Amino acid sequence: MDKIVIEGGTPLSGEISISGAKNSALKLMVACLLTDEVLTLTNMPNLRDTRFLGHLLANFGVAVKDGIGNISLHAKTLTSTTAPYDLVRKMRASFNVLGPVLARAHKAKVSLPGGCAIGARPVDLHLNALKAMGAQIELSEGYVIATAKGGLKGAEITFPFISVGATEHSMLAAVLAKGETVLNNAAREPEIVDLANCLNAMGAKISGAGRSEITIEGVKKLSGIKFAVVPDRIEAGTYALAAATVGGAVRLVNVRSDHLGSLWPLIAQAGAKVTMDENSVLVERHGTPIRPVDVETQAYPGFPTDLQAQFMAMVCLADGVSIIRENIFENRFMHCPELSRMGANITVTGREAIIRGVPKLKGAQVMATDLRASASLIAAGLAAEGTTEVGRVYHLDRGFEQIEVKLGNCGARIKRVSE
Ligand code: EPZ
Q1: 175-215 confidence digits (pLDDT tens)
Q2: How far, in Å, from the CA of 118 to the mean position of ligand 1?
Q3: What does DSSP assign to residue 93?
Q4: CATH number for the domain that contains residue 200
C-alpha cells in the first residue's frame, strides 16, 4: 500500500492548476444514463472515485471512453438495472444511479450504501423524493427495489433539511418525469448549479438551481452534449489553506474564487494575504503568525464541511485558541487524534473541537481516515518539523489528483512511496 512521506519545514512557492470538481463530475457522469446519445465531459479529474463510477456505469451497459482530461459516456441501451452491493458500498455517490435508471427504465435495483467513517449518512430524503414522484419502493435484503409503471411524475418536494445528494438525485430523476417538480429547501452548492447547467444543455428545463427553490419541467428526451466540469472548490480551498498553514506564496489557477466566498475572509483573519484577479487567487503568508479563528460548517454558501479538517490543521499552529463546530456530519473529527500525534492540542466535545494553538508540530506516522482528513495531515506534515508519513493514501486518491506532484511543484518535499 502506498504512503506519502513528507519532510516538513519548507515554505510553498509556485502555481497550482485546479482540476475539475470530483463532487460535480460524479453526478454529471450519472446524467449519461438519461440519454441514448453520447455525453462527453471535459475538465474531468482523473480520480479513483471517477474511475470507479466508470466501472459501475459500464455494468449498466454504458460504453465508457476515458481520454486525458475527458470522458465519453454512451448509454445507448441499458443492459442492466441493478447496482450491486460491492459497487455501491465502495462509493456512496453510486447510489445516485437509482433515480436516473428508474426514470429511463421504469425500474431499478440499487444496494443501500450503508454508513461510512464520517457518519451514518442515511438516504431517507432520496427515497422520499422518489416516492413523491410516484415510485413504488421496497427494501429487501439490503437493496432498494424501485418501480415506476408508466414513468415518474412531477411532484412538490420539501426537504426537511438541506441535502446536496438528495437535491441532485431528485433533479436527475425529475428531468424525464411527466409534469413539473418543485424542490423546496434545496441545496445551493455550485455542484448543483453545474449539474443543472449540464442537464439544461442536454435539453432539460430546470430553473432556480443555486437558489432554495428549484423548478423542473419534465421533458420527453435528452440529447448528448459536451460539457466542462466546474473547477473543484474544495481542492482549491485545500491548497489555499495549505499555503496559509505552511507559509510562502501559492497562486491558484483555473479556479472559481466566487465559489469560496466563505473561506477568503477566514484565511485573511488567520493572517494570510489573499489577492484575487479574474482567473487566479494568490495566497501568501511570509512569517506573520497564524491567528486563531473560530468557524462552523454549514451548507453552501456557508463554510464547507469538506474544508473543516484542512482548516483545523492551520489553526493547530495559531497563536491562541480556536473553536471549530461541525454541523453537517456527526463524526467528522477523526483527524483530531492524528493531528494530536503530531503535537496538536485539540479537545473534542460532541460536535465542537477546541484547538489550542501550539508553536510547532512535529513529524509523525499518521493514518488517513477519510479523503479530506488525509489532506489536513499532509498540510500539517508540510508545516511540521521532521518527517511525516501518511498511511492509507487510497483515501487521498479518491479525490485529489496528483496532490504530491502539485505540491512538489511548489517546492514541497513530498513523495509517494510504494510498500
Ligand atoms: C455531498 O455528500 C458530498 N459528496 C460530500 O463530500 C459533502 O461533504 C456533502 O455533500 C456536504 O457538502 C458528494 O458530493 C459525492 P448531504 P452528501 O446529503 O450528498 C444527512 C467529500 O469529502 N442526510 O448534503 O452525501 C447526512 O447524513 C464528501 O468529498 C440524511 O440524513 O451530503 C448528512 O448529515 C464527503 N438523509 C447531511 O444530511 C438523507 O437522505 C448532509 O448530507 C441525505 C442526507
Answers
A1: 999 999 999 999 999 999 999 999 999 999 999 999 999 99
A2: 10
A3: G
A4: 3.65.10.10
